[in-house]
What we know:
heterodimer; A: alpha+beta; Alpha-Beta Plaits; 2 domains; four-stranded antiparallel β-sheet; 10 helices; 67% helix; elongated; B: alpha/beta; six-stranded mixed β-sheet; 32% helix; binds magnesium ion
Amino acid sequence: MAIKLDYVARETAHSLRRNFTLSIASMVTVAVSLALVGSAFVVRAAVQHSTARWTGDVQFIVFMKPDASEAQIGAVRNALDPAKNNQVAKVVFFDKARAYKEFREVFRDDPVLLSTSRQSDMPTSFRVKPAIKNAELINQMGQQLKQAPGVYTVEFAYDTVKQIERVSKLVSTVILATALFLLAAAGLLILNSIRMAMFARRREIEVMKLVGATNWFIRVPFMFEGLIQGLVGALPASVAVWFLGTRINHSGGTRSSVAILQGLYVSSGEVWAVIFAMIVIGCLVGVIGSAVAVTRFLDV
Amino acid sequence: MIKLESVSKTYKGEVSALEDASADIAKGEFVFLVGPSGSGKSTLIRLLNKSETPTSGTIYVAGKDIGELSSWKVPFLRRNIGCVFQDFKLLNSRTVYENVAFALEVIGRPKHVIETQVPAILELVGLAKKTDNMPHELSGGEQQRVSIARAFVNRPLILLADEPTGNLDPNTSVGIMRLLDRINRTGTTVVMATHDRAIVDTMRRRVIELDHGRIIRDQARGVYE
Ligand SMILES: Nc1ncnc2c1ncn2[C@@H]1O[C@H](COP(=O)(O)OP(=O)(O)O)[C@@H](O)[C@H]1O
Ligand SMILES: [Mg+2]
């Protein structure tokens, strides 16, 4: 099918200009809704990183001193062995190499900290998932280990960690739900602006049908117009989310290898993935909105 | 070229616009559809290019039952059927040249074809000097010539004209009829709805008369009556 690109481009540009206000309204709505979607995902990722050490019901972490001896480490391991201690369900040992790997992962955007830290500085640690639910007993178990030789500190997953996760989940769900509504509104606005565009060009459309232009030839410029509206809306939203990402990474917070919560951060890979998804969603909303418009109101 | 087999059309609201119409139109014929306003002339024209579908009956165009045509093939049917209307249906923001070129552009004809065909057809309809004018700068007769040029530029097998002289004075109408006659002499089948008595009587071509949706007369070399 010979649909010429310059024809589609010319018609689209012309039509967008003629429908200026409605097109702008569509694009702004796309932008706002996508910015919300993107922010929700970025913030969620940041919180997940912040609480990364506490996944899998880890309730406390025993950090050994960097210079703890093999015998001291062995003693703590022995005390936490699920086979010998029925209060422990699972324990994971992080040696220096694994600790350093995690450290570099968490602080990948902090070259200064990375360059001043070596693997030998890393504390080894035990991540403990207790078999018991009683907070008091868990606390006791941890406090006892604090006294053991070679132990630097014991950090507990205070309920705050769980709470933060809960709140972040709730907030991002609410934001996403709102964003979905807005996206639907954006789709309807695009549908309407395409309908207006078709109305403005009804004589052309009538003539096109009369002389035997194919349905797709008539439809494509309008669908392209919808696509452009979605895409153009996604761009400012992407910029906003990108800024949010950098703001989060400069928000400070604890940057320690032994803290409960790490400072919020998102990797640039995650930000780009979210932005890519936003652009895809924007284009989809535009194409779907205009596709509905052309199939419903362009009875060819 | 065109064959109607007991075609009826009832619009929603029980308006019976065409009833049991049968006719056979050969290639190269010139046929007038006559009858008072509301007798079903426009309906018949619209059925022929599948702008409407009949309630019952069968229509053959170029040997094909157009009722069987799937909707994506309808545009290709229309490429073989030029259409001219009383109100010209020109695009007011485009020049004469662009109006005619548009018809070729939207069916994907290559540029070099457009650049040779459009001036040639404008020459044929006598508008070679007006190619860059806008429609509102033309007389009614000239506008109808543009619309005929647009309908004929793709060299269709059939030309349908629904009261093409309805908005024109008698002298201008004569010019338009000469043009349609010339087009007919190239082998194009022409079907023209009209209630212009003078035109029908001077042309002496086949006349199909409609009344309340029924064909009441089909006469070779007929007059209006
Ligand atoms: N789109 C339509 N919907 C409903 N009724 C119509 C429509 N078009 C025409 N009619 C009716 O069908 C009858 C025939 O109309 P038409 O074919 O336009 O006749 P003519 O062209 O001879 O004046 C009239 O009664 C008219 O009111
Ligand atoms: Mg009529």
